[in-house]
Amino acid sequence: MSVKNGINGWAGTILRINLTTGAITKEDTLPKYKPYIGGMGLGYKVIWDEVPLDTDPLGPDAKCVFAVGPLTASGVPCSGRMNITLLSCWSKGYSIVDAHMGGHIAHAFKYAGYDAMILEGQSDKPVYIKIEDEKVTIEDAAHLWGKGTFEANATLAKDNGPEFDVATIGPAGENLVPMSNIMTSFGNSGGAGIGALLGSKKVKGIAVRGTGAVKIARPVEVRELSNYMIRDLVGGNNNHTVPCHAQSWSEYVATNNRWQGAPGITWDKASKGPIDMGEQPSGQINVAALRCNKGVFDFGETAEKYTVKQGGCSSCPVRCYTEYEMDPLAEYDLPTHVSNTCMPIIKMLEWYPDHVDATTGEKVKSTHSFADDGDAKMILGGAGSRAADDYGVWCNYGNLYEDFNMAYTTGVLKDVADRLYPGEWETIPWDLMESGDPRWVVECYRRISTGEGLFADLGLGTYRLYEKWGMDDPAKNVAGVSFYDFVNAKNFNIGHNGYPRHHGPENCWQAGTLYSMMYNRDCMIHHLINFCSSGAPYNEIIKPVLEYFFGEGWTDAQKKYTPINANKIKLAKWAFIGKQWHDSATLCNWMYPMTISTAKKRNYIGDLDLDGKYMTAVTGEDYTREDQERDSERISQLLRVMTAVSFKLNLGSTNLRKDHDKVSEWVFDKEPNFKAFEEGTVKLDREDWEKSLDMWYEAMGWDKETGIPTRATLEKFDLGDCADKLEELGLI
């Protein structure tokens, strides 16, 4: 453990478990992995060194890496993250992807003495991994196989003791459904298909108890930095730094954002009676946890009626997970205790598209209110979120629901059912959907997780689904459109790779589009969305703060976009490589970086050097923002190399610009009454986009024609072996 081996920040040990042989070994983290920080960077390096990129993602030679970084469990706020690296079994190119998991298990893992765990091989029977400090065993999990994640997690905690943190897969992972995840705590998940990979290895989950500690070089400095961060910098969820409701101390009131706490906003079902959230002034540490009422942001004031409390991850003062007790679900014999913070709870209405009334032939809504007017989104969201988590289904940042909705409303779903699954349509309980019954969404997830016919295909993920159903080719589906390019409010596909944008052009202009294209799943970058859509006044806060840090021309007001320029490219690069930093350090990118402050006395200016200050205080080594950007760019270059190699080996592609970075046509064709760059639209311009790519590739040191890193760029970051591989494959 770190306190024993004398290393500051890092635990110093990597755990390797071979599920075929049962061998459990340990190796040093440093110095080999130090240039890759930890977390994501460490995982990328392991996969690059050990797993050929044409390996079957669910085969016996596939590996996955659970990893944390030097800041996790160090006392740094918002560091309760774990990164899980694997090969995709569902997106184009089957390249490198990551699952990102919160909760409490990352801290337990670090306290047990580990920076990473490499799982390799395959078990021939269901097992789980038990970690109790130095003692690591492979345990029988036959009694857990087939159970949902809530029961499996509870059983593991009961079997091993309440001090263990646990995480398990559900039936979706066991049945190798690509859209599957691993669940920990109560609503914290890691997605990207990790459930299917663990299912292929017969690993139901992990149970971790750590009694050690992380050695900190300058603990007093960490405490002072943390107090400063919570007092003067941090806001609500997504670091929204201006309250949404008027408070006596605040100079501004935001438009709708995630700082919903205010006098009169309550947790009505708190264990000891309703709690009024009151005011949460900047400058006071002990009120930060009352700022975020995500339920009110998602569902309006009706959510207060069902709110128990706000939950969150280890070491996080923000508490972004609303926990509910949704009484109306009891009438349907469904669990009433629900918690989630993002897509699985806010997008369930997509499972309830308008249907045609059999009597009148007219389109009618499939949803209705339950106890209060307009509460369908919340109640159906609660039922769906709980079911998705229990079955261990991952939604691909909402694409799962949107794919169903688009296929149903365009007639593609019925046509595919008739052609591929004759007779199944009549066995599906459409009456539950049409009556707005919450049991419908539970049934959808059950069918996906158990691999039943039509719904099993939805679990393949967008890329494989579109191939199978012909949704990628207008000539092959009854709607006559490419669903990648379809101009439709339900279409999130930023490209043709099988994953959606994660705050792209609709929020973050060309910059958001650029970094949304750089991954093999949704990018999960919040660097820009945290300020550009925070609801803070643009001219008074956002623009001057960004100009303070970056100079003029870096940012646009919402729906008032301007053509690409060099500073926008620099901002996009800052966000892109910064994401790798947060997933390697490991910090929460929903909160960091501290770009904008809550404090008027600071002119609302945040502190972009804070991350480096934490690294210095924790490790005892001088670590600047420049160091941070160098190390995270190394990881970013490795990501791009692995994407290029995967596309070559699996698709025969030699051009990422053409085959990976192709943007969907709806980005340019939406809002036809506007021209690009007119005030009021978020559509992009094709010529400007091509110029953006040219400038982006130049900034990243990539070939402009192919979008692949050059040898000079890779050698700059000590990645000469990557250049050798690209040359061997004829890619440079």
Features:
732 residues, alpha+beta, Aldehyde Ferredoxin Oxidoreductase,  A, domain 1, 4 domains, six-stranded mixed β-sheet, 27 helices, 21 strands, globular
Description:
- This protein has 4 domains: 2-209, Aldehyde Ferredoxin Oxidoreductase,  A, domain 1 (4-Layer Sandwich), CATH 3.60.9; 219-330, no CATH class; 343-476, no CATH class; 505-592 and 624-728, Orthogonal Bundle (Aldehyde Ferredoxin Oxidoreductase Protein, subunit A, domain 3), CATH 1.10.599.
- Helix content is 36%, strand content 12%.
- The chain has 27 helices and 21 strands.
- It has a 6-stranded mixed beta sheet with strand order 2-1-6-3-4-5. Strands 8-7-12-9-10-11 form a 6-stranded mixed beta sheet. It has a 3-stranded antiparallel beta sheet with strand order 15-16-17.
- The longest helix has 27 residues, at 625-651.
